[in-house]
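Q: What does the assembly look like in three dimensions?
Context provided by user:
Components: two
Sequences:
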Amino acid sequence: MDLSKYAGLFLAESREHLSGCNQLLLMWEREPANRDAVGGLFRSIHTIKGMGATMGFTGVAELAHRLESLLDAIRQERVTVESGTFQLLFRAVDALGEAVEEAAAGRERAPDPALVAALDRATGQAGATPAGPAPPPRRRATDTPRARSVQVIIRADAVMRGARAVLAVRRAESLGRVGAVRPPLVQLEREEFDGRLAFRIESAATEDELAAAIRTAGEIEAVRFEEPAPVDGTAGGRRQIRVDLNRLDRLMKQVGELVVARSRLGVLAGQSDDPALAELSDRMSRLVSGIQTEVIAARMTPVGDVFERFPRLVRDLSRDLGKRIRFDVEGEEIELDRSILDEIGDPLLHLIRNAADHGIESPEVRERAGKPPEGRILLAAARERNSVVLRVSDDGRGIDRAAVLARARRDDPARGEAEALSDDALLRVIARPGFSTAQAVSGVSGRGVGVDVAMTRVRQLGGTLEIRSDLGKGTTFLIRVPLTLAIVRALLADAGGERYALPLAYVAETVEFDPRAVTALRSREALVVREQVIPTVHLRDLVASRERPAPSRRPTVILEVGERRTALVVDALVGQQDIVVAPFDAPRGMPPYVGGATILADGAPALVLDAAALR
Amino acid sequence: MADSPTLHAVIFRIGALNCAAPAGIVREILPRLDATRIPGVGQAVEGLVNVRGTLLTVLDGHVLLQQPRREEDEGAIIVVEVGGRRYGLGVGQVVDFLEVPAHAVAERAELPGIDPRLVKAVGIRDGAHFIVLDIDALVAPIIGS
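A: Here is the predicted structure of the complete assembly.
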């Protein structure tokens, strides 16, 4: 039987269990006397062992078996938990994770003998029994075959129920002729399969032998020899199925196109005198909104999926750094579009690592400062209208603004003479790539490493990054990201009769172009806006627009990317619109400031400007 | 060309030239559409058009073949697929869809007023020559890598 098609499912399920194991281990390590975690750990490892054995991944099954034996011994208090036990358990869970990844990728190998030996030593047995399903009973050729109906029920909480059902049928086939499989084999492999399977078998084996063979498929709740009950797929309340993310991506793309088509239909209906068309357009609009909402909802995933990797990271960091850090998480249930969630892990990683590495002080320093020796990092998520705010805060040393300012002035003598750095200005300085190299920030806090990376990634997601810091009290980074990437709010600007879209995430403000405020900055035209000198870009010059003379009054869009501001002078602002960035085959020589293209409500294509490249 | 019994081609006019594109790479023929100009990419790219919700980059056949526009031409866009990508080729007028016997098409020949590298073959229709364009060679300098 080909089980390779279940490798993806095996991997996904195993990762979930392993992630849960890490959480449980962390919880247990914090309170060693509390054994609540042991049962959960045991069950997860046992499940991975079962799945590994079903898939034929003997290395995974064997390592899981050794780990399971140790956990069982701990559970039954045959083994005392010592200081090294947690480290061994973490090591074994990590190794199991690697073994799972390798096996799913088709590179299965035997577990590390040193680790196996260490697990066995801790369990108190020199050679544990190897794992693996029992061989199926042999068929006795002497008995006359007889027909029976068999019903098999796979445990409701079992993973890979389809695979197990197929395996159960195959095991039964080793003892006789199987037919009338209900549901049919092809349907067993679907996720909707509810775990109840019936078939007819002609076999000389006894019912006990048949049941024993079928049970080797694992996670079998019951094997009954009776008339098959009708298979009822409607039992239970909300049912869930796993859906390939690529399928959801394709669906989202189609919905994006539908949104564009809806806008177009709305414009056409508005131009027509036909009330039936207007009514149809309204109806279509409501239907499309409904579909859009549902598809976006289907892509929503709790941020906890990304958060769960960080407690382990902070634990390991605090051990390496000789610090005591408590890591708390809030709002794990808040949901974000999967595509954003996939990208947000990196910025969070940088900020959390920074907080542990540079924010939180050593226990001695904290005590001298009158703080508790254990520092605290909080990772929290909260929903705010159409965005999600992710907060990484620490109660560490905070950022010394005077030192940062001094450093910034050394780097850039032309810098303004501001006496103190505002939060915005502070972020612009420390998010400058390479700002805080080790020697640059001695006596500051070391922040800045990775802030530029976090800032860039967050911006790419159409989000914003803010900082709040109090010297001696701690620092908070706020990441604000849209709920979904599928639709971007944009400002539409006109230059020479051509319309260009500017994502609002980069628009700081719009002002009127005032020729009296024009000055020069490093031999470039610049505009003074509220005492700040901002280099200008004239959009009609940039795009070499040949049409129409420039109007006398020109709006100016102040774009902000990181610490850099650009004043984009346009002919007119023609409104805001939700746009869907559409792919197209770009010709050679396309300027870097063209970030993409979209289709406007009137059906005309428009180019989307990349604010980061407008300078 | 010579080993194929018939050539299926779309015949169109660009300026003074009668041209043809092998039907195998033609996906669609659209009426002339207003294109959104892409700055900085040169005159040979007309711009982007919206084809039923999909963006299509349209190249200007007149600029590519250095032919003048003729007022009487209505304009059309021939959608071709090159290297897995679709492009529009803006032409003066689509004239015909043709099945030509192979013997009516000769291998590449020198013709006045056109870069020989863009000519795949030359055929005769109603006593007049038409040029089977090498669309790959025509769009290669324009399309992205």
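Follow-up: The interface with chain B takes residues 257, 260-261, 264, 498, 542-545, 582-591, 594, 597, 599, 603-607 of chain A (CB under 8 Å).
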